[in-house]
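TL;DR need structure tokens for one chain.
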Amino acid sequence: MAKSKQIYVCSECGAEYSQWFGLCKECNEFGTISEEPIELSNGGFSRGGWQSGNKTTKIKSPAKPRVSVKFTDINNDEQARFPSGYKELDRVLGGGIVPGSLVLIGGDPGIGKSTLLLQVANQLSIRLPRILYVSAEESGQQVKLRASRLGVEGTNGDSTENSNGKKASIPDNSLYVMPETDLEEILRELESLKPQVAIIDSIQTLHFAALTSAPGSVAQVRECTSALMQVGKRENITLLIVGHVTKEGAIAGPRVLEHLVDTVLYFEGDRYASHRLLRSVKNRFGATHEIGIFEMADKGLIEVENPSELFLGNRDELAPGTSTVVACEGTRPIVVELQALVSPTSYTSPRRSTTGVDLNRLQQILAVLEKRVGIPLSKLDAYMASAGGLTVTEPAADLGIAIALVASFRDRTVDPRTVLIGEVGLGGQVRLVSQMELRLKEAAKLGFKRAIVPKGQSLPDDIGLEVIYISKVIDAIISAIPSERNQNTDFDE
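>> reply
TL;DR here they are.
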């Protein structure tokens, strides 16, 4: 008979203890440690097999591999991929879906994870014979009702129109739906049906009967993911797994969940705005920090072909305190408008507030402007936001933030045809950034005429922009912000 043992596991970080503690020593969270039973075989752990037996001296045999192979003998053919039906998702995945891979998709409730995966399942069912959609949160009728609302329903070869306006004929019995939470039943269905792609919605609601803990606990999530991974790798099934997130924005469950899968994607965006961002934070088959942009419409998610136009504000009406930067998310350049507001404070300590910009970065640039340029901003409220709500975290946006703050302080308008790219150092210097040529080509494609970049940046002559090289923030201010007597000059002249 198997022996049982009790361990104590933190639900936040997955740390294990031999006794209960109120405070987790790994993540410093209170009240997150709970009891988890584990099963041990008779006799406990034993070092049998190759380590057992007597230790008599034996004649040494020649060294030879048993199952390992030489590194040069490994096949270096490129991994085959197949398209998901959405170019934005393929971009984030690194060029398409890899057979037998595990993809974890996390996001806030109501952001559109299930909508995205249902639309992807519809597109895949056009080209692949068997797609399995495991709905652990909804019944089959609820899934079909949502599919009908999104326009992706079409059995018996009916012609439907997807969210991109394309007519698609769904083959009969190509998309299978399984409303189930029992892990063993799901594994049996995967081994029997052998689908090319299986969607698990969601991992926190699955239940493994051999464990006494509740669904969503550390042990349940770890064991369910491990079992699905084994079946997926053995049967070469691609698994798209939905993961819930905590209030801090991290995927719920143990950290080992993100280590087990091949790719981790986050579906971000404001539920009150129309656009959604699919961001890659881990990818064993492609680059990380790639983003795909979708727009939520009445019939589901639509791909955004030109995201730079989405994150540019109204270019018809010029307003003081705005500047334009080119941010790079992975290999994609995106033109973003930054808006700043500097006003007198009504409190003892001035307020600092940001939307889409790092607050610490804003405070650092404010200190540089006051110390190195001489602009008194320490006793003024400062607000900074990015148009469209895109999160801009890279240092290449520092110059645009600084120019927007100075323009708002002086009540000046920056030329809307100018982009600013550069990192601001603590000494007031402007440093070089990567992928400059890619950024400037994106700006030229959108009709910008001038770019202010750090001195020493090597660029080709046919970039399509007038490039102004500067070495300090004060030089950028002189070049970007017109004087008072030239403020009313028409920029189109």
